[in-house]
């Protein structure tokens, strides 16, 4: 039933591209809350090579993924088929946060589709384990379309509001770990 793969080959990439959403799971190292987030907009995910993927991280209601990645880097991505062909695919790896002010950001941004307002970062994941599962108990759902609400909301926001969120509700995780707080630079910024 379950199978492990050595790399992201053509059929796995086609499966990933066919999914309208994916899920991201992270956790702090010592106690704290596990975070599990659904992600939409199909053009916000990209397979960069056989062992590297990335996705656009848009401003949202929390910043747990970024906080957890800054602390320990552990991340799992899950793609789940809701069609007649059942399948679950998990990508286990180490993630890092690339903010828009990082020189690497522009090159990474070129891997994604439409321009989305409210881009907070690109999350890059070095995939260490690729495994699927049957998904036999996952129900069938029909994809009706992408929900434009987040993009529409972000398009109405002034840049100043995003800047305030960096030190406000996006400054720390719910467990108090630093996220976008500029007083706590990302590890890559500390090397500069």
UniProtKB/TrEMBL annotation:
Residues 12-131 form the Pyridoxamine 5'-phosphate oxidase N-terminal domain. Coiled coil: none annotated. Pfam families: PNPOx_N. One of its GO terms (molecular function) is pyridoxamine phosphate oxidase activity. Its EC number is 1.-.-.-, 1.4.3.5. Residues 181-192 have a biased composition (Basic and acidic residues). It comes from the Bacteria. Residues 166-192 are annotated as: Disordered. Keywords: Oxidoreductase. This is Pyridoxamine 5'-phosphate oxidase family protein. It comes from Nocardia fusca. The lineage of its organism: Bacteria, Bacillati, Actinomycetota, Actinomycetes, Mycobacteriales.
């Amino acid at each position: 039933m379950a199978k492990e793969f050595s790399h992201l080959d053509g059929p796995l990439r086609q499966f990933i591209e066919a999914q309208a959403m994916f899920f991201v799971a992270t956790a702090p190292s010592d106690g704290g809350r596990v975070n599990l987030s659904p992600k939409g907009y199909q053009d916000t995910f990209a397979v960069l090579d056989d062992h590297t993927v990335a996705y656009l991280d848009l401003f949202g209601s929390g910043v747990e993924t970024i906080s957890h990645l800054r602390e320990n880097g552990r991340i799992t991505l899950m793609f789940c088929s809701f069609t007649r062909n059942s399948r679950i695919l998990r990508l286990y790896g180490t993630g890092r946060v690339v903010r828009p002010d990082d020189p690497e950001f522009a090159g990474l941004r070129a891997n994604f589709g439409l321009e989305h307002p409210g881009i907070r970062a690109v999350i890059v994941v070095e995939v260490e384990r690729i495994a699927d599962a049957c998904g036999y108990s996952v129900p069938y759902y029909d994809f009706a379309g992408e929900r434009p609400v987040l993009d529409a909301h972000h398009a109405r926001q002034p840049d100043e509001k995003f800047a305030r969120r960096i030190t406000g509700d996006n400054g720390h995780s719910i467990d108090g770990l630093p996220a976008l707080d500029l007083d706590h630079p990302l590890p890559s910024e500390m090397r500069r």
